[in-house]
Amino acid sequence: MSRPTVPPTAAPTEVVRHDGRADRTLVHLVRHGEVFNPEKVLYGRLPGYHLSELGRAMAERVSVAFEGHDLALLGASPLERAQETIAPLAQRTGLPVTTDVRVVEAGNRFEGQRMTGPDSALKRPSSWPPLWNPLRPSWGEAYETIAARMDAALREARTVAAGREAVIVSHQLPVWTLRSKLEGRPLAHDPRQRECSLASVTTFDFTGTELYAVHYAEPAGELLTDATKVPGA
Description:
Elements: E1 24-31, H1 53-65, E2 71-76, H2 80-93, E3 97-99, H3 143-160, E4 165-170, H4 172-182, E5 201-207, E6 210-217
Helix pairs in contact: 1-2, 3-4
């Protein structure tokens, strides 16, 4: 497999689009928009976490960014925030949404707990045993497992949308883990270094069955603030 090119550090707002070549397929992995989470907990796979008002605006920006693209497939994680992010694009295009559990958020033993601030779970000795191996990581789903399921979803989307484009809404850690795997980086990482902001688009650019390049864009970049740029689900 050809090693993907590394996109520039200054992320554009425009999503790369298909150029009409029959052997080219674009699979766009979108991170969902901002979630309403006033308690500031790590919500992970917990149900009941929906987009905030800002998150809905981000989802609308994403739908506009794909106007005129040759879309053949829409997909999303089963979690509410992912389904709500893809909804405006589905309405705009009339395409059905395929729910794909393989692109769901990573499992995490600290779901429902605060991970920052004076009452952070990380400050309690009872929380320390699961933290013994950050390279796996020991507190949640293994990076290799995440990469494998995301890669399977990516390859299937490439096959279904062959010669056109697919859009799948997922979550920050799964998208970044897959990108790191395919770009040859270690999967263990500092979450602050992830290039995967809210409502961002990471595009996997295939020539035939080979991954040629990876592109990154932030169509909702104008809506991002310092608070919304922090790592999260």
